[in-house]
Amino acid sequence: MQNVYDVIVNMRQLPVTELGAGVVRRDDTLADGRDLFYYDDPGTQLGPDRAIDTRDLGPRPATATMRQDVLTGDWISVAAARQNRAFLPPAELDPLSPQTPTNPSELPSRYDVAVFENKSPSFGPALAAAHGDTPVADDAPRSLDDLDALALGNTRTSVGRCEVVCFSPEHTGSFGTQTATRARTVIEAWADRTAALSALPGIQQVFPFENRGEAIGVTLPHPHGQIYSYPYVTPRTQRLLSNIERTAPDLMQRVLDFERGGSRVVLSGEHWTAYVPFAARWPIEVHLMPHRHVADFAETTDAERDELAPLYLRLLRGIDALYDTPTPYIAAWHQAPVHVARDTVRMHLEITSPRRAADKLKFLAGSEAAMGAWIGDVPPEAAAERIRAAVASAYVEGVQA
């Protein structure tokens, strides 16, 4: 049993960086060398000291390998270490809760928001060039063109980085269950990590996201999201780049103007608008786009982040209000590639859910899964009307949306 003396001895003050909105970042490392960042709420109740991670951890798994599908050009990361990740553990063994004498979790100290390197990542820890103590992959792609050539049996090391973003120390919840203050802290963390990850050697795109609900495949009920940093531009973004080239550089502004002038807007503010897209694929699908062109979170202003916190909460709570039980979803923050198309690809959120009724899910069967040919179950206009009504009834910290 850990005594009071041990707790005092194992505490230390960490390097501090002041960010926007009164958020403070404290930099630490875990016992196996992985980075850990604490993001303290403005007016946090936490003290300046943080506990040292004294676990006896084995070596980190080797970086995964990417294999190229020569028929599509897609790169598939084969990360066998992910098979060992935690699966629906009880609350007393939650790996994302603060450590206790009986729970040797990933977080040594109590925290407001915490970000750390994934123990079993799909990409990394190796990078394309030297960066601190991070290993270097000799076969890492040096440019986007380096991955374009098609060849049977083509492989590369899955360089990159995967991070876990803990929204709260509580065992259960989601982004939508947080306070507006906490949501603002998470947004500041997303912006800070987007900037830092974009600067790593070989990173081509940074993707923050939240998976919510067992129906989506979530294995931890703890309120958290992830950030993937890819060594390539993802297939979805490549298709967007192609369509921008086929139409006009301001395609995304045109989409926003088109949606704002229609009947599918569900929520709008001074800086952001949420809408059900004209050609929605999923029974529940909402996009959220900034009115000003920004490539990623790092380019947003304090005013845009300030408005986003309560607006995003209203949107998620409205989606939860559609039925009597919480809605499973994927909340995907699409950001521009790090090195190309920064002036044409606008960051935006896409929330999708397979829930088509209180007790029914849309499964991707033959047409969607095999051919990529989607069939929508719910007219987008009807979906927008239901979501708009639900959002109007949602509350954020006691204030009606």
SSE map:
Layout: H1 4-9, E1 11-13, E2 16-18, E3 24-29, E4 35-40, E5 49-51, E6 65-68, E7 75-78, E8 113-117, E9 155-157, E10 161-166, H2 180-198, E11 205-212, E12 224-230, H3 235-246, H4 251-260, E13 265-268, E14 272-275, E15 284-290, H5 302-320, E16 329-334, E17 348-353, E18 355-357, E19 360-361, H6 366-371, H7 380-392, E20 395-396, E21 399-400
Features:
globular, alpha+beta, HIT family, subunit A, 401 residues, 7 helices, disordered N terminus, three-stranded antiparallel sheet
Radius of gyration (Å): 21 Å
Net shape: globular
Estimated structural class: alpha+beta
CATH class category label of the largest domain: Alpha Beta
Spatially, the strands of the biggest sheet line up as 2-3-4-8-10-12-11-16-17-15-14-13
Beta content: 15-25%
Q: Quaternary arrangement of the chains shown?
A: single chain
Q: Catalogue the unreliable spans.
A: 1-9
**CATH fold title of the largest domain:** HIT family, subunit A
Overall domain count? 2
Helix-strand topology string: HEEEEEEEEEEHEEHHEEEHEEEEHHEE
Considering DSSP H and I runs of 4 or more, what fraction of the residues is helical?
Answer: 10-25%
Write down how many β-strands occur, each being a DSSP E stretch of 2 or more residues.
21
CATH superfamily of the largest domain: HIT-like
Individual helix count = 7
How does CATH name the architecture of the largest domain?
A: 2-Layer Sandwich
Largest sheet: 12 strands, antiparallel
Q: Termini distance?
A: 48 Å
Q: What is the average per-residue confidence, as pLDDT, rounded to a whole number?
A: 93
